Amino acid sequence: MTEIKASMAGSVWKVVAQAGEQVASGDDIVILESMKMEIPIPAEAEGLVKELKVAEGDFVNEGDVIAIIE
Amino acid sequence: MNDTLQSMKEKVASGGLDKYHESNRSKGKMFVRERLQRLFDDDLNIEDAFFANCMDGSLPADGVITGIGKINGEQVCVMANDSTVKAGSWGARTVEKIIRIQETAMKLEIPMLYLVDSAGARITDQVEMFPNRRGAGRIFHNQIKLSGRVPQVCLLFGPSAAGGAYIPAFCDIVVMVDGNASMYLGSPRMAEKVIGEKVSLEEMGGAEMHCSISGCGDVLAADEEEAIHYARRYLSYFPTNFRTAPKRVETIDPASFEKSISDLIPTNQNAPFDMYQLIERIIDEQSFCEIKKKFAPEIITGLARMDGRTIGIIANQPRAKGGVLFPDSADKSAKFMQLCDAFNIPLLFLVDIPGFMIGTRVERAGIIRHGAKMLSAMSEATVPKISVIVRKAYGAGLYAMAGPAFEPDACIALPTAQIAVMGPEAAVNAVYANKIAALEEADRPAFIKEKQEEYKENIDLYRLASEMVIDDIVQPDHLRADLMNRFEAYQTKNVTFTDRKHGVYPV
Asked: ipTM of this model?
C-alpha cells in the first residue's frame, strides 16, 4: 500500500484518477493548483487506486494524503 | 629477511579476519582493496603507512588505506576505510594517516577521495585520537581548507557514524550505496536510550532518506559498482584543482528528436512541461551527470557538456511542485553554484519559475534566508553565466535564476518567455481586488480578461527587448548553437567579485 501525498500546499484543481482504477507509476492522480500553476501529483508506484482522499476544490497542505494505492 | 617482508605484506594486504570478509560479502560489500582496484585506472600506485600499527597483529594498516592512484589519467589522493579491521574504526594511526594524505592532496593540489565505511572512533583510544592537535578534528579542519581548492568526493559504502558523519558533510559530493550506506550522529540504540525514540537505522540515517529528505547525500547508487562508476564519471567533468579549467572532450551532438524544442514548450504558462526534455536537446549527447536528483526535484542541478566543454546546469522543473523554489531547492542550488564556481565551470540557468513559495509553512522554515543564500551564491559566481528565460520568470524567481541585475554574461529569452513581478492572473487580482469585488458578479470575467490583456501588453517580450532588459530573443531550435557560441566567447572571462575577506553569508 502506498500513500500518495501532496508535494506542496494548494487546492485540488482536477481529480484525474478514479477509485478502482489501475494506474502505472508516473500517472497523474490529481492536479493541484498552487502559485497559479498546475501541479501534477503522480503515482509513485503502479497499482490499484484504493481510495481518493480529496475532492476538487479542497485545500491540501504539503504532506497531506491524497490517495491510497494498492 | 625478504620472506619476512613478503609474509608481513601478505598479511597486511589481506585485511581483517575471514569472518568479517564473509559478512561483508553477504551484504554486497567489496573488500576495500578491490574497491580501489575498480576505482583507479590501474590500482593504487603509491601507498604509504601500509605498515601502520603492524606491531599489533590484529590491526592491518590500522583499518585505513591511504595513497595515490590515477582516475581518467589524473592523479588523485584517497583514503579508504577497511571495515574488516575493527569495523573500520579510527585509532590514533588511522587518523594520522588520513591527515597525512589530506596534506598530500593540499601540497600536490589534486582531488581527495574518501571511501568511507567506518563505525567511528575507537573509544579505547580516545586520548590519542580525539582531542589533540592532530586528532580527528584536524581531518575536518583539513577538509574545510581543501574545499574549493581541489574536488573532494565521498563514496559512502557503509556507516559514517557520529563525528565520522562529518567527512561526507564537508565533501563536494556524497555518493551513497542503497541499503548499506548510512550517516547519523547517534545510532538508533543511542536514540532510544537518550531521547526515547524508537526508529530503524534506514529510516533515521539510511541512503534513501539522506538522498531524498535531508539532502546530506547527493547520489543514490544501487550498488558499489555503480557508486564507483559515478565517481569516475563525475571527476571527468572537473579540473584537478581550482587553478585550472576542466578538460575539453570531443563534441557529440544530441540525437535528433521527433519533437523539437518549440513543440515541447506549452503556450499556456501554467501548464507543466518536463525540463529534462529541453536539457537533452541542448547538451552533448548522454552528457548529463545529475546531482541531487531525488532531493528537491523542483530544481534540476547537474553537470553536462556543450561543445565538449563542462557546464553546470541549474534548471527549474515545472513538472515538480510547479518549479516553485522552496528552502530545500534554494539550498540545493546554492551548493551547486558554489561547486561550479570553485572549479571554473560555467553556469547555464534554464528559467521557468513562478517564484518562491509562499505560506506559513515556508515562512517558518525561513524561506527568506534560504532564498537569500541562493541569491548570494549566484551573485558571487564569477564563472561565465548565461540565463535563458524559457517561459515565465516571475518575481524573485527572476533574480534567483541570474536575472539581468546579477551580471550574467547574457540574459536571453525564448519567444515563449514572460518576465514580470507576477503572472497576469495574480497581478490583476492584486491591483484590482477592490474594483473586482465592487462589480456585479456577471461583469467580473470580462473586466478581469480586459485587465489581463492590458497587463500582458505591458510585459510584452519585444517591449522588454526594446528596453534592452534582455540581450536577445532566440529561436528555440537555435538555442544550442547560440549557447555554444556564447560559452566559447566567454571563456576568457576574468572577474574578481569584490575586494574583501569574505561576505557574511545568509545561511
From this structure: 0.86
